């Protein structure tokens, strides 16, 4: 039996995950419980700072007594529930979802996908060369971040981060339907002419690299991007007195991007344009 240390909760819910008894606070989701006990469930659209979008369907698990598989990112844990995260049904579902996503979009910069596809035996090429695709050129219309929508899986995380859940700028939304569905600015205006305030919080939550720092994009293009050589240092932003935490990603003694810890009580992973992009002066030579 594994008991998760969650302080002094008002009420605990006890249920079973893959034969192991787990206790979590009432209201916790299945994926929360699995993460707490070290079980990693693949997911793309789930974000620990956002409300579940239920879009990617990669995190589906089997619950005994349920007719269909359920999304672990949003399904609340219930007392007595019996969950299987690696059954034949979940593996088949995950395999097909990954195949459909990879056949239509470029997942080459999506962390973890290669391992997930190998473990499930997913083969996107089985749909043939005529499979529908959203391939399109990257949009480079500013010096801060790049939009490469050929890698977009329409997980809605950027829309939520830009909207009412965090920034409240509402600069982007989903336009079109079916295979024409896409992330777009208002009236498809260029980004500099939109309501975007360049906070970069959409870049922070993007799971596939469809949104990336301009410096990261350039280094990937010329083949010099290497995360194994990068060091991360967390510090405090000096632009104002709020006290936002910054994590500097440094490669070859050069800052290549800035993020913020999601567990920070000040930022929760979010920053403004100064904190996220105002670091070029540090290495202005």
TrEMBL record:
Coiled coil: none annotated. Transmembrane segments: none annotated. The keyword Metal-binding applies. Residues 230-285 form the 4Fe-4S Mo/W bis-MGD-type domain. It comes from the Bacteria. The keyword Protein biosynthesis does not apply. Residues 11-89 form the 2Fe-2S ferredoxin-type domain. InterPro entries: 2Fe-2S_ferredoxin-like_sf, 2Fe-2S_ferredoxin-type, 4Fe4S_Fe-S-bd, 4Fe4S_Fe_S_CS, Mopterin_OxRdtase_4Fe-4S_dom, MopterinOxRdtase_cofactor_BS, NADH_UbQ_OxRdtase_ferredoxin, PSI_iron-sulfur_center. PANTHER family: HYDROGENASE SUBUNIT (PTHR24960:SF84), PHOTOSYSTEM I IRON-SULFUR CENTER-RELATED (PTHR24960). This is 2Fe-2S iron-sulfur cluster-binding protein. It comes from Amycolatopsis plumensis.
